[in-house]
Structure formats: structure tokens, C-alpha cells
Design brief:
The protein has 306 residues and is α/β, with parallel strands linked by helices. The chain has twelve helices and nine strands. Strand 4, helix 7 and strand 5 form a beta-alpha-beta unit. Helix 1 crosses helix 2 and helix 5 runs parallel beside helix 6. The longest helix is centred in the N-terminal third of the chain and has 16 residues. The structure holds S-adenosylmethionine (SAM).
Length: 306
């Protein structure tokens, strides 16, 4: 990026900086160059993005221009915007994100919608317990705690750095008193008697062979621990399913986010799992199978004393 220099005419106003950066990022092949430019300039100027629209003619200070130039340079190298600005919106809430966590994706919002439906329609908004396995930035745990006030959430992750980010997000949304964070390989570290009404997980589900084919922005920047699901993409899911079956109360729900290419395989694994009955898979807005569902069978949980 050639330095926008205020000593040469014409002046580098906000409007001109945005136009120049949009063209620059478009030439680099990015999908949303204007949005990226606006988000980065708003971050450098420490203002809401919408405020830029009333300040097109304004000339930013030298320190804002320097900060912006550095952000654009890193964006041009491939760093995702969410990591550059340290934030991403999910389910209309702002979440802190760092390179220790996956950048939350819009399709994952469907998991929250489905969990809310279960809580409202099937659990009658009663007190319930929910686990979010592989919580990452904590989006599922935090949104569920926020929108289901009678729900107690356990958020688990094998990555301590991810749990730290999730903890910050829980505090920011004032739901930290209803979320318990646990460093754990899947459900291994839970107390023996712990059971749940719902277990949600967006686990790593990219097949190792497909990792190389991911866009650079994802492959070189997002944590492989959050993406790589082993040979067929279902290694983590395969281990999780029996553990979840053993931890669900009778009639409890398991919701698994999957990749469209391994949804059928996950459905088969769920259908064969002891103690679970598969339920209808939910498609995302692009009509791809996205949430594989199962319910714990009462038979797997004989009443105490039997
Ligand atoms: C695809 S990310 C999902 C993050 C977040 N739930 C979301 O939807 O944006 C998967 C998460 O699972 C965690 N993870 C991977 N293997 C795990 C394991 N064996 N036990 C617990 N967590 C694991 C990763 O650290 C990562 O945070």
C-alpha cells in the first residue's frame, strides 16, 4: 500500500481512504473489500462503522492513518478482519475473538435457534442444564445462557487459551455466573454424576485431506485444533457421541454441527449409537445438512435402583 500522505493533494479524507482501500483489497481478490475497508477504518478510528458515513469529508489524524495503514497491510497479507479488530458479531452480540479461537460462523447461529426452540417448546422454559463441547470463543454457551435464563451451562474445551476468550465473552455479556468453564478432552473431566438436558457441539469436522484445500485465510490463520477432524472429519464426533449418550438425561437432546460432506456419515454413527435415537437433520439457509440431532432413549437410563 503506497502511503496516503497528507502533504500531497488531494487530501486523504475518510471517503478517499475507503475508496482507495476498497479497490486495493478488491484487486487482491477479497470478497467484501468495501466492508473490510470500513470495518478496519472504524477500528483504527475507534468508532462505530456507521459513523464513517457522516464523516466522509473528514481527514483522519496521522495516528489513525498509521493504524489504518498497518491494518490494511495485514489484511492484504491474509489476516482475517475479525482477528485484526479482535471482534465478530454472532447472534447480534459482539464477541471477542483471538487467533486462539475459531471465528464464529453465521451457520452456527442455527444451533442457538434450535436449542432455544427445544427449551421453549419441549422443556417449557424450565430449569435445565446444557453443555457446549468445544466452546471456542464461547458463542454457543454465552448465547444460550443469555437467552435461556433458567439454563445452567457447562462450556468445555481442550484449549485453555480458548477457554480464556470464552470466559471474557461470558463476563462481557454478564452471564458468567451461569456458565461453568472446564478444560477437558470432550466430556472426560466432568464429575461422574453430571447429566444434561442438551449437549451442543460444533466440533472440528474438516477431513485432514481437505485442510490443504481450505482458503489461505482459514488454513493459515484459524487454529487447526478447531478445524481438523481427522481422516474423514469425524474423529472427534465419533468419540463424542457415546460420551454424550452417557451424559444425557432420558429424552435429552444432542445437537451436532456438521459439514455438508460428512453429514450422512455422522447420521449413520448417531443412528447406530447405543442410547440415542436419531432425529431429523436440520438444513442451513443454503439447504445444506447442518445440524444432526439425536435424543437419549429412556431405555438407556433405567431409574435408579433398577
Ligand atoms: C469448530 S470450533 C467451535 C468453536 C465454537 N463452538 C464455535 O461454534 O464457533 C471447535 C472447538 O473444539 C475444540 N476442541 C477440539 N478438540 C477438542 C477435544 N478433544 N475436546 C474438547 N474440545 C476440543 C477446539 O479447541 C475448538 O475451540
Amino acid at each position: 500500500m503506497s502511503a496516503p500522505d497528507s502533504t500531497t493533494a488531494p487530501t486523504w479524507t475518510i471517503g478517499r481512504l475507503l475508496t482507495w482501500t476498497t479497490d486495493f483489497l478488491r484487486d487482491k481478490g477479497y470478497d467484501s473489500p468495501r466492508l473490510d475497508a470500513e470495518v478496519l477504518l472504524a477500528s483504527a478510528r475507534d468508532c462505530p462503522r456507521i459513523e464513517l458515513y457522516t464523516a466522509f469529508a473528514e481527514e483522519p489524524t496521522a495516528s489513525v492513518r498509521t493504524a489504518f495503514r498497518e491494518l490494511v497491510r495485514r489484511r492484504a497479507e491474509g489476516t482475517p478482519v475479525a482477528y485484526l479488530v479482535g471482534q465478530r458479531e454472532f447472534f447480534s452480540l459482539p464477541f471477542v475473538v483471538t487467533p486462539a479461537v475459531l471465528i464464529p460462523r453465521p451457520e452456527t447461529e442455527l444451533m442457538v435457534v434450535r436449542a432455544l426452540d427445544i427449551w421453549k417448546d419441549l422443556l417449557d422454559e424450565s430449569a435445565c442444564s446444557l453443555a457446549d463441547v468445544g466452546t471456542g470463543s464461547g458463542v454457543l454457551a454465552v448465547c444460550c445462557a443469555k437467552h435461556m435464563p433458567t439454563c445452567h451451562v457447562t462450556a468445555l474445551d481442550i484449549s485453555p487459551a480458548a477457554l480464556e476468550v470464552a470466559g471474557q465473552n461470558a463476563v462481557a455479556q454478564a452471564v458468567h455466573d451461569r456458565i461453568e468453564f472446564l478444560e477437558s478432552d470432550l466430556l472426560a473431566e466432568l464429575p461422574a454424576a453430571k447429566q444434561f438436558d442438551m449437549i451442543l457441539s460444533n466440533p472440528p469436522y474438516v477431513a485432514t485431506s481437505e485442510m490443504l484445500g481450505l482458503p489461505t485465510e482459514i488454513r493459515d490463520y484459524e487454529p487447526h485444533l478447531a478445524l481438523d477432524g481427522g481422516e474423514q472429519g469425524v474423529e472427534v464426533i465419533q468419540r463424542l457421541i457415546p460420551q454424550a449418550a452417557a451424559r444425557l438425561r432420558p429424552g435429552g437432546w444432542l445437537l451436532l454441527e456438521v459439514g455438508p460432506s460428512n453429514a450422512a456419515l455422522v447420521e449413520q454413527i448417531v443412528a447406530r449409537a447405543a442410547g440415542l435415537e436419531r432425529r431429523q437433520t436440520i438444513n442451513d439457509l443454503a439447504e445444506h445438512p447442518r445440524i444432526v440431532q439425536a435424543q437419549a432413549t429412556p431405555a438407556a437410563h433405567p431409574p435408579a435402583g433398577d
